[in-house]
Amino acid sequence: MAGRIAPLPGLLSPPRAPEALPVAHDRVFRTLRAQIMHGELEPGEALTLRGIGARFGVSMTPAREAVRRLVAEGALTLSSSGRVSTPELSPERIEELAAIRALLEPELASRALPRAHNALIERLQAINGTIAEVVAKRDAVGYIRANLEFHRTLYLRAQAPAMLAMAETVWLQLGPTMRKLYGRLQRNEVPYHHRLIVAALRAGDEPGLRLAIRTDVTQGLRLLIG
Questions:
Q1: Disulfide engineering: 58 pairs with which of 4, 23, 62, 128, CB 3.0-4.6 Å?
Q2: Are residues 212 and 139 in the same domain?
Q3: Which CATH number do you get for residue 42?
């Protein structure tokens, strides 16, 4: 009818569902990233887009985007033939990543020291209690997760987000290797250097804290280099 005003688009029609692709991609990316960082995947473990899609109930597109981001972070490798897998690190690469940890993490701990109040120390001791529990259960993934939580909780007090992001990228690349390392360490108690870290924080001992952190983050990796 002439002169009739057409309804505005979407006014009378059902509202469109929000775009699910970015949400799906982010969920896949974050979950896979955490699993790799915590050693839930073995070194050299192959992944397929179809398998990732089926596992997370998503299409190939968010699976592909998540893999692309993880490859960019060094958490996954992509061969010339298109094979996607977790990294198998050479001794030289392990040594390089250990050296980065030895540089970054003592600095983060040092920056955190002025804000290492009793609440933080108590939180670190509680995490050490969790580590003792997972060690008793021979839970490798639980150990790696709790160990990284110990370090992250301390480093967050450094208020140095760029440095912490760099440290987390190294943890991510080392995740599957740390799973392999756990089997060699045969832990039966909380790491000795965690106790030294807590003691140094209580005493305000920056040189002692730097040494304890540096030794803690590199000592085990040397077993895989030799």
A1: 62
A2: yes
A3: 1.10.10.10
Q: Which residue(s) pair with 77 in the sheet? A: 85
Question: Range of 59's domain?
Answer: 21-85
Same domain? For 110 and 201 the reply is yes
CA distances for 190 relative to 134, 135, 154, angstroms: 10, 8, 17
Higher pLDDT among residues 18 and 222, named by residue: 222
Q: What are φ and ψ of residue 84, in 5° steps?
A: -105, 130
Structural contact between residues 171 and 108, judged by C-beta atoms closer than 8 angstroms: no
Q: Residue for token digits 């040594």?
A: 95
**pLDDT, tens digit (0-9, with 9 covering 90-100), for 78-88:** 988 889 999 99
Within this chain, do residues 80 and 107 fall inside the same structural domain, yes or no? no
DSSP per-residue letters across 144-187: HHHHHHHHHHHHGGG--HHHHHHHHHHHHHHHHHHHHHHHHH--
Residue 51 domain-assigned?
yes
**Token match 């960019």: residue?**
72
Question: Could you report the per-residue pLDDT of 120-143, keeping only the tens digit for each?
Answer: 999 999 999 999 999 888 888 999
Strand blocks (E) in the chain: 46-47, 77-78, 84-85
- 32 located within any domain: yes
Going along 41-171, which residue ranges are E strands? 46-47, 77-78, 84-85
| Sign of the CA dihedral with 188 first, then 192, 193, and 196 last | positive
